[in-house]
Amino acid sequence: MDIRRRNNVTLTGPEGGEGDGPVVVLAHGFGCDQNMWRLILPALARHHRVVLFDYVGSGASDLSAWSEQRYSSLEGYAQDVVEVCDELGLEQAVFVGHSVSAMVGVLAAQSAPERIGSLVMVAPSPRYIDDEGYRGGFSEQDIEELMASLDANYLGWSAAMAPVIMGNPDRPELGQELTNSFCATDPDIARVFAGATFLSDSRESLKSVNLPTLVLECTQDVIAPREVGAYVHAAIPTSRLVTLDATGHCPQLSAPEATVQAILAFLQEAR
Amino acid sequence: MCRTAEEPEPDADRGTDAAFSALLEDSAEDLYEQAPCGYLSTLMDGTIAKANATLLGWLGLERQAVVGRMRFTDLLTVGGKLYHETHFAPLLRMQGELGGIALEMRTGSGDRLPVLVSSVVKYGSGGEPLLIRTTVFDASDRRAYEAQLLRRRQEAEQARAEAERQRERAEDALRQAESDRARLTEALAALQQSLVPTSLPAVPDLESAVYYHTASPDRLGGDFYDLFPLDEDRWAFFLGDVCGKGPAAASLTSLTRYTLRAAALHDPEPATTLATLNTVLHEQYTAAGDPRYCTAVFGTIEPGHDRQHRTVRLASGGHPPALVLRADGRAEFLATPGGLLVGILPDAPFTTAQTTLAPGDTLLLYTDGLTEARTGPTRTSLFGDDALHAFATDHAPAGPQEVITALTGLLKSFGDGLDDDTALLALGVPATRATTAPTTPPATNPTNPAR
Questions:
Q1: Would you call A138 an interface residue with chain B, using a CB distance cutoff of 8 Å?
Q2: Residue A19 domain-assigned?
Q3: Which of A36, A186, B50, B289 is most buried per CB count within 10 Å?
């Protein structure tokens, strides 16, 4: 199988060079696709080779490779990450995961330790639903409301448009011209990804992380509140917590300079 | 005086002017505050900087509790917040504008307000994002309609799934039916074999042949026959026809066959054997209010005055008479006086008749499927006793197999005129070697120069 095509893998980096640091893999979370990184990409690519990809089912990935069984749990997404790393022959890469992808990175690093050397977790949460002695911020009913919002908004996705967006990885400009296409996802697939994301519990997996890890949180994030950031930091002894002066769940969009500065500083240090 | 159409009507003109000037006096502030949609301006971090009276009225919130104090996401339901953070906000950042997103707001009293939201980012002269302008439309009615559409779609999906399940059930049922049918066919075959012998036993110095045809597709015929030994020298045979067809007839046939077999062993006198059968059937069916009956010829065959001859004794109960094809080319019906349908009356008289079979003689028993076969171009006339007699005369002398073969050919010629069960049983004493040498079948002809 053509993994690069399947996951719409994009490689970028310093002009005519290999870069002077480790390869950086940027992994989007639930909602949109690799476009999420567009504001911090230029600064990162100035010094590092950067790998961008879409999980199967998102963005311009090959929808025919999607199966409900595989992508109903985070392990399926971690398998995508490992297969992309294998395909590119990456070693000791820096895995930058946004939101739920931070936990996908933990699973991927566990299953292929030689591929991933350090983790950057952007607005991570190991569990979104409240539990005894743990506050994730949501109830199961809240997640059902989210599903209803997914049903109410197809966001540029339609059966007629999907082939244009999904079927032309060679000509991404076709997809980009469409309004809202960054979030264009088959609603049935989006529902499965939402379930895999918001019903997951990765708290146990966190305990085994012993890689250099950067935890980035925002001052105001309804999805990953600060106490969750503190929880993640406390669970990983090898982690550093940086609180960005940013609101919302996507600091790479709302505070791109601060975000990229923090990541570059971490990469500098890790070398 | 007559006004022309071109002249404006003075009163109407004054009214339009008044409305127009009222519109001009409508201040921008009033247009904003009282617009038929909600207006909202937020800083880039979501903090609400401005909201119009319409939106505040919908939400039932005081201006001072909202402006500068709440963020846009604070107005949303929790599910709406999740959706905003994972889809709305990133898209707005990347595209600078976003329209027609369905969200739910929470009012001051805790009610939900379905809305459609459109936002646009206002940029500064240097291209830096400054604030977000948002319009909010009350989508209660529309959302109710969409919810109905969604419900319809789910119902259609369920109906489709149900149809799929029905189809699977139907396939299961078909498979089950096929397997049932296979088992039933097997059971029928076993039952069938219990009604008539699979083959005739070999009887010393006696030839026999049989033809058996069932008109019903389940092969459960109403006709029956048998040939079995009574002792070393004596054999018994019978042939008959029960009323009705199919399974009900089969149970009657079964009772008839095994009663005759048992009765014959007890007392082989043909009249007595049929009387026993009559008693059994009458007691079983007619006396119980379910009148059923059969017709039958029962007989015994034993050595005659010498080894060349056989003595046949037989009795009939309402059955067509047996036919004897003599070695000399004659054919004769064997009269069996009396003999009513078996099983109808509590006491039925039967009479035993007797004849001798010489070498070359053949005794033929048949059911009315033969004599009542419809013939003629329109299939309206019956074959009948006379035609059978003529046919037999035409073929006599003939051994049992020869007779059955000739009759089978005759039956085939009837085509769809043969719609009843038919059984034929022929017993014969072999002709002397000179006339029955199998290698020269035409040698039988010289014994019948008349042909």
A1: yes
A2: yes
A3: A36
